[in-house]
Amino acid sequence: MTSTREPDERLTGAGPLALAALAEITPAETVGAAAGHEVHEDGTVSLRFAASMPGYPGWFWTVSVAAVDGADPTVLEAELLPGDDALVAPEWVPWSQRLEEYKAAQAAARAAGEDMDDAEGASPDGDEGEDGSDDDAEDDDEASFLHAGDVDGVDIDELDAGAEGESPDGAEDDSE
């Protein structure tokens, strides 16, 4: 979006205005020296300042300014943008493409005769640990399993079994 048109001297000289705009969004010590400008086709100018924040090498504070005939320059926007040497996150890849790549890798492994789980050291049933034993700490627990009715230590199932001879109103059934 750059052009070879001559920049408006009022805009390229609007460094103090750009620094004032940056002072509203970031501490002054995070703004470094002027790092040039870019003239856009619509006549706006983006002024760049080096970012002097730890963790942001290669980034630039960019302030876009414009001026209407007969008016003073004004700030359009201020932002932190990566330069060519900036550390940025990799481009996002949609889940569907990542899944396709995973399925292709699985198919290639099957074609090569490998089982992906076996290649990673897991057993086919998935129960063996790193040492190859099928012994889990939970398997050693001999205590009976509790359900919601057992929280107070009373087994509801035992009470129900003893109550089979009782009538619904709680009296014992003498019909036997």
Element layout with pairings:
Layout: H1 9-12, H2 15-23, E1 31-39, E2 45-51, E3 59-66, E4 74-82, H3 95-111, H4 116-119, H5 156-162
Antiparallel strand pairs: 1-2, 2-3, 3-4
Q: How is the largest sheet built, in terms of strand order?
A: 1-2-3-4
Mean pLDDT: 78
Shape: elongated
Specify the number of helices: 5
Q: What letter string, H or E per element, gives the SSE order?
A: HHEEEEHHH
Low-confidence stretches: none
The percent range for strand residues is 15-25%
Question: What's the story with the biggest beta sheet?
Answer: 4 strands, antiparallel
Query: What is the helical fraction, as a range of percent?
Result: 10-25%
Could you tell me the radius of gyration in angstroms?
36 Å
Task: Find the count of extended strands (DSSP E, 2+ residues).
Answer: 4
Kindly report how far apart the N and C termini lie. 98 Å
* Class based on secondary structure composition and strand pairing: alpha+beta
Question: How many distinct domains?
Answer: 2
Q: What oligomeric arrangement do these chains adopt? A: single chain
